[in-house]
Design goal:
Layout (H helix, E strand, L loop, with lengths): L2 H16 L3 H14 L4 H13 L3 H8 L5
Length: about 70
C-alpha cells in the first residue's frame, strides 16, 4: 500500500473528527492500523475519538500503544 493512501486515510479521519463524525473517524483509522500498525498518529487520533464517544477503556488502550 502506498504512503499516499495512508496519508489520504489519515486526512479523511481527521476531517471526520473535526465534523464530529467519530465512527467514520474510527473506521478510517482501523483501516490505517490494519495496513500499517505502527502509525502512532492513527492510535492517538483513535484515542481522541473514543474519548469523545465516552468509550474510555478503548481510548486508554489506543493511547497506550507504544510510539513507533
Amino acid at each position: 500500500m502506498s504512503p499516499g493512501f495512508i496519508n489520504a486515510l489519515l486526512n479523511h479521519a481527521n476531517a471526520s473528527y473535526e465534523l464530529k463524525e467519530y465512527y467514520k473517524t474510527l473506521n478510517d483509522l482501523d483501516r490505517v492500523i490494519s495496513i500499517k500498525p505502527d502509525t502512532s498518529l492513527a492510535h492517538f487520533t483513535q484515542g481522541l475519538a473514543y474519548t469523545k464517544l465516552r468509550e474510555f477503556n478503548k481510548a486508554l488502550r489506543a493511547f497506550s500503544r507504544p510510539p513507533n
